[in-house]
Amino acid sequence: MENLQDNQFDVWEVFIQxxxxxxxxxxxxxxxxxxxxxxxxxxDTYTRRGEGTSIWVVPSLNVTASDPDENxxxxxxxxxxxxxxxxFYILPEGAKNI
Amino acid sequence: MKNLxxxxxxxxxxxxxxxxxxxxxxxxxxxxxxxxxxxxHAHSEVIGMQPEGNWITRAPSLRAKQILxxxxxxxxxxxxxxxxxxxxxxxxxxxxxxxxxSGKAKYSNIFNYPALNWADIGAIGWLVDGAAIVxxxxxxxxxxxxxxxxxIRICKEESFHQRQGYEIMCKMMAGTxxxxxxxxxxxxxxxxxxxxxxxxHDSDSPHTGDxxxxxxxxxxxxxxxxxxxxxxxxxxxxxxxxxPDKDLxxxxxxxxxxxxxxxxxxxxxxxNGKGPCNKQRLEHHKKYHLEGEWVREAATAHKMKKIKRxxxxxxx
Lengths: 98, 316
Ligand SMILES: [Fe+2]
Ligand SMILES: [Fe+2]
Prior knowledge:
- Chain A is of the alpha+beta class.
- Chain A has one domain: Ubiquitin-like (UB roll), CATH 3.10.20.
- Chain A is elongated.
- The relative contact order of chain A is 0.18.
- Chain B starts with 6 loop residues before the first helix and ends with a helix.
- In chain B, helix 4 runs antiparallel to helix 7.
- In chain B, strand 1 and strand 2 form a beta hairpin.
- The radius of gyration of chain B is 22 Å and the shape is globular.
- Chain B is an all-alpha fold.
- Chain B has a two-stranded antiparallel ribbon.
- Classes of the chains: A alpha+beta, B mainly alpha.
- Chains A and B meet through strand 2 and helix 1 of A and helix 4, helix 7 and helix 13 of B.
- The structure holds fe (ii) ion (2 copies).
- The site of one fe (ii) ion (FE2) has 4 residues of chain B, from helix 7.
């Protein structure tokens, strides 16, 4: 997270929760030298119109992402495991509320 | 979905309307085209703050001043969203600013025209933001994920920009004779440059081929320009403003307005640095970038001090 190459600070990923009860969703990123500045910049950049009630900021370098080259292995739709879906099951005619 | 590293499978993904994300394979030309387009777009948002910023202290009421401040703050935010999107392609913000300062990167030509009086603030919001919106709505469907997401966010904020501009024009057109003349004069000066914002005609735009093939650009310059004209004529007529184009007329056959010839000579002159404000805009940006240097240095020094202190804590 130590960006010493240029004078544009570190990059922080910003997650906003639009209201209590909902998940924090990635909104974009900001540049900042520390946590406090990151939260302040995220507030100014991404929540000028009541878009959120909570902000998370995470140094971009601390985010580990899956490798797109492994998508096939990771996100195989598992079509051979249809029993994971409710439509797989055969129910007797007339069964209600299930 | 197989993510093969070649241009052919990349094109297949594009043709299937898949979005491209930062770590996916992309042809070098795609990356370069995006960096050029997104950074130019970002610079435009930021440079575009200048003609309007010039009027904050002279806004005619507190209400007008608050609105203008909020609008300009949005534009700064738009610049940030777009710089972020460009950074995902491997270019740093510092490099982009250097390219702006050296003249290697451009910004929208429209901001090389001056905002001479309060009516210009109306015309800019209504026409310049109005034209930008037409382009940005189309770019919401651009193939590069981070660019598309930035556009969706920007479009949500833009409609207030256009409305506040139109409201200024409405008020002036309901005012004294002098105010009406000011509004019409601003209309006369901004109409043609606004049409030029969409870029050269399809028949002579050099970058269109690849951009369309890669779905970076979803609609052509002429299509977008026509959309803008068709929308705007009614708004002008409603408040008594005359579009400064004697050849403008409704074409019942194709359901669009025909318009007169655009003066591309002026366009290329301004793009190549001979506009009324080119020098001023760039110098202003350089000056404040330089004056902010100590703030960036101080913030970085503060960070380093804190890191040292934390390390000290850990080892003792
Ligand atoms: Fe904007
Ligand atoms: Fe705007």
